[in-house]
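Deviations from the work plan: none for this task. Representative record:
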Amino acid sequence: MIDLPVIQTHRLCKSYGSVQAVRDLSLSVRANCITGFLGRNGAGKSTTIKMLLGMIRPTSGEGAVLGNRIDAPQESVELRRRVAYVSEDKRLYNYMTVAQTIHFTSGFYSDWRPETAESLRRKYELPSDRKVKSLSKGMRTKLALLLAVARRPALLILDEPSEGLDPVGVEQLLETLVTQSAEGTAVFFSSHQIEEVERIADQVAILEQGRLLKDVSLDDVRRCYRKIDLVFSSQPNERDFQLEGVDSVQTSGCQMRVVCNANAEDVIERARALDASEIEVGPISLREVFLSAVSETSRALV
Amino acid sequence: MLWYKAWLETRSRFLISLLGIVALPCYLVFDQNADAQPQTPVNWYYHALDNGHRLIVVMWLAAAILLMMGGVLREKATGTISFTLALPVSRMRLMLVRILSGFSQALVLMVIPWCAMYLVSIATGRATSLSQALFHLVLLGAGGLVFFSIAVLISSVVEGEYTAPVVTFGLLFADIAGLGQSRYHSFSTWNFMIGNEYFNRSTQLLVGIPWLHVTANVAVAVLITTAAIKAIQRREF
Amino acid sequence: MLFKLTASTGQPLYVQLLQQIRHATECGILKHGDQLPGIRTLAEELIVSPNTVAKAYSELEHEGLLDLRHGSGAFINLNRRARLFTDQVERARRRASELVEQLREDGLRDDEIRRIFEAELLCPGKVVSRR
């Protein structure tokens, strides 16, 4: 099996008037992987996802999902046949019951698995004859998830799936995503819950102000990313630490924190040369990677 | 499956409309007995059935406009649009199913009441004329298409739940009040549907189906519907 | 058996997993011929990406510690080399405990010793800590 990227975009842009929601986004999402899509509110995550699904037209650039061009209407229909999507607001038709919603959705897909749908419905405790209107947000999210995974999509795209779920629901969701991945579905999901992404993702893409800041594997983050806390006898100069691999440098008085994505040794070497009185190297959590990357960008743009 | 959705979406509106449209004109025909008694069958026909037709037209317009409320743009406001658009169907098909299902319901809403009215007339032993009934139906169908397509178009460009029917009703009143009495009265779709233009004053009957007008109305409706589909295809959600 | 994977410890999850399996074989929790859960089952249990489990298993297979039989699961294989390794680890543990004892006698607190060890493992030979 050749693992072509399931999502591939090249310099994708979307602007609304003078506002650039997505800028020059070149993203490649691998098959057989769980990819987390991080970014602040308004960073352009939903806009990107909607462009992939043909709901929004790109201003420029191109993209393909499972080899189908996103801006060609007929190919867009074809790609939606093989992509499952759970939208940000998880709204379903209020006038349908749970059973009607499942019946309705099943009619569109030849690979629908009725037994899977039924077992998930029981697991998620969704009452068949309840109207969607009277479901809580958590239940609606579970129903939307059920509709997405009751077939065998090649790619599963979820926009903030854990929002509105209780802790048990979140565990069920993550377990479902793992199961999907084990069955060979590529999973691409956006989230604000960095810890969830950190637990199950293989790869992480960080978007900020419409730009792709990082596209890294979590194994690499754990293996190579380090935060180095330094103490000097006088105020250090940030410029001394603009080395290769350094992501961000933060100073407060005589203290300094350097976050690097590689070459921690060089930073330590430099610190020693500058007579640092204390050097402490530690691993860095994804949350810190995210915050340091985002703060660095907003500083650069001021 | 889209048909299933369209049916679930509109069934209550449709059934209530159907009940209303069947009941009122039938009652009118039945009730006009007193008025028509001393007159000839033709007069009775004119009084009862033609008034009945007028009532059907008014109620049908209201029903058709209410039936076409909702749609893709309305789904944007309620948030279900990202689910609908993620289904593996083209927007063209989404629109066509909605339009065709709405249209077939609208068709039922004009044929059944007329049949009912006709049967009530027969049952009460009144004069009836099949050709007159068909004539009325053709006028209602062709003229109705225009308003139906306007309702489709407006629900495809404005988002608010009640904006679309309000604007369509506004256009209808503009047609009746603005065009109806002016020198351009022959351009009024309302006049066309009511049959005012084709009414023979001496026999008080409608004569000869105006095929040219019918064709023109259908063409306008097709044009407006195409515009609505294009608008939805170009739209971003 | 029970595994404990921590998301932010400076070690890829698959490395943590394979170390814990290796450790379990070294201290006898897992014995020759024991069966491990399948990739999918273990991934669902731990709620981690299936790739994490797959990678750990395939490295362990490469080391010769695990037999992956298609369709029937993963089995611990403690051949002679692995058993030798077990002895080696036992020796290393004794040495480490001696060293720690020595450092304590030198007046270092446990958290300082831990930090020195961690820093040494994260960035070998480069870290100095002066006061």
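Chain A touches chain B at residues 50, 53-57, 73-74, 77-78, 80-81, 83, 85, 87-89, 91-96, 100, 103-105, 107-109, 144 (CB under 8 Å).
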